[in-house]
Amino acid sequence: MPIQDVGTGTSITFGTSGFSARVASIDGPGFSRASVETTHLSTTSNRTFMPGDLVDRGELTLSVHHDPSLTPPIAAAAETITITWPIPSGLTNAATWVFSAFCTGYSPSVAIDELMTASLTLKISGGVTITAAS
Q: What span, in angstroms and rounded, lies between the C-alpha atoms of 38 and 45?
């Protein structure tokens, strides 16, 4: 049975660069898979498709508290990223997602009398190892 929870307590760890920021939200990753059209001249009524072989694990966009003293990992090589989700009620271990990713964007946002924030984008390269909460 699926577990429902709130996101409070979620953390993200950068394995090599050690980049650390206060994360306000994580959007993604969005997994996708291509479809290959198999329609041919004798097909009638509807187009037909089959699933592609490769999965694109997508990107994550993090909203973080911007600290102008920190250097974002925009020039760093791909590294191991670990997302640790909150521990669901009644369980002792959190679910984790572990994958290789690299930073493709960092964009600070600063306004009068508002918290400085930044958007940090990570591109996943390869698969995602998902360990269920227990």
A: 13
